[in-house]
């Protein structure tokens, strides 16, 4: 193992122990009970050895002493079981609480990293890190550390007992036993790389499953089942291969160390038999010595037995801490400017932005919007429409230039204050597993039922909700699976109407609604947009004819702007887009 890899593992271990430090009292209790368990475990062979010595004298068996020794042995074994149970109870509590804290930190991290971090990683892989990898830490490292501690105590105490019985035989055991450690270390180096690859492939498989399970309708609509299965099988086979290699290498550890331990037992038996013949040891003592030799080697077996868990846990911990170490989004400027009293005047001064440094998207973009204006943004796919909205909401930050609202830079405002100025209705509707009322009141949790109903009426979904089994208390299943796409979109529209923000962003907000309902929603939007600055992103150009200004974007720049009539008269790019949608076939 390289020095760099060793330092990395030690750093990972220290970080896990730091998470466990608030529960050090339970950890201390676990260690105390581990010591008591080990001491009593080592006391039992002494009692049994004395019982043997009292039973082998021909014609002179001391039944009273044997009975007393057996009773003491029974009490000792029972106490061992109790202390072992208490040790496991406390270490498990440390494990569960520690993993709870790590999961909480990862979830909180998802809320603090820039949106580009979430967008740049497969969501299934992130889910795998917060669930599977943290579980591996709990099952492997924390419990493995306890076994290491109890094993160390067992080795030290057993060695002390053996030295007291016979120094020479104890030295024989000490000389031979470390061979198992060298064997385990060699096998660990072989298996570590495979366990790291196994964790990585598990995350890849989770991401693939998450992607295709969520899009089963699309998969079936395009007859993509065979290709999807082939992609799954390819990843699954890779996971099988690295898993087999990891288990193969790690499975060598336990048999190899047991072979070395068998050599130890053989050496003890031979040396002990010679000592019994010479009269330096009794039969009971050599029996106890054999038991101690097994107890001495047992921790080495246990350590090698948990190597697969330890390796998997370390690999999972590396993936977890990779998330926790990712940089947070830039903090809000302090002191921040007051965002209240917004009129909706927006000035965009020569901003530039790109998702990748080598692929510019928006360059020297400039726009000045009057308060209360309705701004429609149109253009071909990939021209930067949605990116512009992301920059306006500070989901992403510009690389150059500035955006001001009422003369105040959005970078001088707190992000929460800035985003509270906008109401967003996106093309992709999102609902969560809660009641209809809770979903509509998502942006205003303290809203009364009457306010929720009023918003639902404005979105023309009130009647549908009242026909549901429990009305506004009806529970919506995950992602609104028990609603149609149009109904989910109407719910999201009602959510924004309830918040009543000073500015609006409508990103294909009516794309999933039938034409008749769309006319009603457009009427509701027209009423809501009165006096408010509104940005309307649309592919269907018929929905934006009433906009005050239409921005035509192409390759991240505004190439045309004006009203619908003005742009049609120019006969430019907008004229081509519009006619391409409404041209009649002859």
Defining traits:
six-stranded mixed beta sheet; ABC transporter transmembrane region fold; 10 strands; elongated; 586 residues; single chain; alpha/beta; Rossmann fold
Report the top-level CATH class of the largest domain: Mainly Alpha
Q: What is the architecture of the largest domain at the second tier of CATH? A: Up-down Bundle
In terms of structural class, how would the helical and strand content be classed?
alpha/beta
Number of strands: 10
User: Considering DSSP H and I runs of 4 or more, what fraction of the residues is helical?
Assistant: 55-70%
**Gyration radius, in Å:** 35 Å
Summarize the structure in words.
The termini are far apart. 34% of the residues are buried. The strands form two sheets. The protein has a six-stranded mixed sheet with strand order 6-7-8-3-9-10, with helices on both faces. The chain has a four-stranded antiparallel sheet with strand order 2-1-4-5, with no helix packed on it. β4 and β5 form a beta hairpin. The longest helix is centred in the first third of the chain and has 50 residues. The protein is of the alpha/beta class. 64% of the residues lie in helices and 9% in strands.
């Amino acid at each position: 193992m390289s020095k760099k890899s060793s330092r990395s593992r030690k750093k990972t271990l220290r970080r896990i122990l730091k998470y466990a430090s608030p529960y050090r009292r339970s950890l201390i209790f676990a260690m105390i009970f581990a010591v008591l368990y080990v001491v009593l475990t080592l006391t039992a062979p002494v009692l049994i050895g004395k019982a043997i010595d009292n039973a082998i004298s021909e014609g002179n068996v001391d039944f009273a002493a044997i009975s007393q020794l057996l009773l003491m042995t029974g009490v000792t074994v029972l106490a061992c079981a109790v202390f072992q149970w208490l040790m496991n109870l406390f270490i498990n509590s440390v494990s569960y609480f520690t993993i709870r804290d790590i999961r909480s930190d990862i979830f909180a991290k998802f809320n603090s990293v820039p949106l580009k971090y979430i967008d740049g990683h497969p969501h299934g892989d992130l889910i795998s890190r917060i669930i599977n990898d943290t579980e591996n830490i709990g099952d492997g490292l924390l419990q493995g550390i306890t076994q290491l501690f109890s094993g160390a105590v067992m080795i030290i105490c057993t060695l002390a007992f053996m030295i007291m019985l016979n120094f020479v035989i104890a030295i024989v055991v000490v000389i031979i036993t470390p061979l198992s450690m060298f064997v385990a270390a060699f096998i660990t180096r072989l298996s570590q790389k495979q366990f790291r690859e196994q964790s990585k492939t598990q995350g890849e498989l989770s991401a693939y499953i998450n992607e295709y399970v969520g899009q089963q309708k699309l998969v079936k609509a395009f007859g993509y089942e065979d290709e999807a299965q082939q992609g799954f099988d390819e990843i699954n086979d890779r996971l099988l291969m690295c898993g087999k290699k990891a288990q193969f290498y790690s499975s060598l550890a336990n048999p190899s160390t047991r072979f070395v331990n068998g050599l130890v037992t053989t050496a003890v038996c031979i040396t002990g038999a010679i000592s019994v013949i010479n009269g330096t040891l009794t039969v009971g003592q050599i029996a106890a010595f054999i038991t101690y030799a097994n107890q001495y080697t047992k921790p080495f077996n246990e350590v090698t037995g948990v190597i697969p868990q330890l390796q998997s846990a370390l690999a999972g911990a590396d993936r977890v801490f990779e998330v926790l170490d990712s940089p947070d989004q830039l903090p809000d400027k302090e002191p921040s400017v007051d965002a209240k009293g917004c009129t909706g005047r927006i000035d965009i001064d020569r901003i530039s932005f790109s998702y990748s440094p080598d692929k510019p998207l928006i360059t020297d973009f400039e726009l000045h919007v009057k308060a209360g204006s309705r701004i429609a943004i149109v253009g071909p796919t990939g021209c930067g429409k949605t990116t512009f909205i992301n920059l306006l909401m500070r989901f992403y930050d510009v690389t150059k230039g500035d955006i001001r609202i009422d003369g105040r830079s959005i970078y001088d405002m707190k992000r929460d204050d800035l985003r509270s100025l906008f109401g967003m209705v996106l093309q992709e509707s999102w609902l969560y597993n809660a009641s209809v009322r809770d979903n509509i009141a998502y942006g205003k949790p303290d809203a009364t039922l009457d306010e929720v109903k009023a918003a639902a009426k404005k979105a023309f979904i009130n009647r549908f909700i009242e026909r549901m089994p429990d009305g506004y208390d009806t529970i919506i299943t995950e992602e609104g699976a028990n609603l149609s796409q149009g109904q989910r979109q109407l719910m999201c529209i009602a959510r924004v109407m309830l918040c009543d923000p000073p500015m609006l962003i409508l990103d294909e907000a009516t794309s999933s609604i039938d034409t008749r309902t769309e006319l009603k929603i457009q009427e509701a939007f027209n009423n809501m947009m009165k006096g408010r600055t509104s940005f309307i992103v649309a592919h269907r150009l018929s929905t934006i004819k009433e906009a005050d200004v239409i921005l035509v974007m192409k390759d991240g720049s505004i190439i045309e702007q004006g009203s619908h009539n003005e742009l049609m008269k120019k006969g430019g790019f907008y004229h081509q887009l519009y006619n391409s949608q409404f041209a009649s076939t002859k």
